[in-house]
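Kindly inspect what follows.
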Amino acid sequence: MIESVGLTKYYGQFVASERVTFNVPQGQVAAFLGPNGAGKSTTMKMLTGFLAPTSGTAKIGGFDVRTDRIAATRLLGYLPENGPLYSEMTPASLLRYLGDARGMNRGDLHGRLDYVARTCSLKTVWNKSISKLSKGYRQRVGMAQALLHDPQVLILDEPTSGLDPNQVHGVRELIMSLGEKKTILLSTHILREVRAMCSRVILINQGRLVFDGPVAEMAGTEEEMENRFRELTLA
């Protein structure tokens, strides 16, 4: 469902991502890890079609995001890190606008708006200006837009960023529930989230793939995982 084939991105002489190759099959929740500046967000942006690669191919559900962008994005929900929102709108008006932009029919859209309002705990701020929302609530609005059209594939860049411990627990529960039916690529810096939610680890460092395998193969405990992470990324 998610294919990265030799994805490479250069900014002048700087290598942000180099020949990154992996695939995530249907129904798998995979953690996409790496230190700051490793190229995680760049690779995710190329997978979603938000950023054009220097070379390589990205596919969602078999559709090349460069040549079949619309078909690919119908299958995809994307939560970027610190994703932009229209601050003068409310969650209700923004999500309704995004649903219309995606061509969702009014009946389906009404049901999905109710679903994401409940699922992302937005009812209390549903008609409040986004400019007045906390970072945590803005993150929930971002998650809501990713889920709105009921996509088969989710690419989530730091989905628990800015959330308090109760909210983090709720997002973990949501992702584990969604992972029963959807394919998810999840970027996070919190290794216990990996152990709680994911069955596989894809780790990059300095733009290159350095580990790809089951969570248990990387380490048996959280402490071992932290040690293995350092070993793979400080070399």
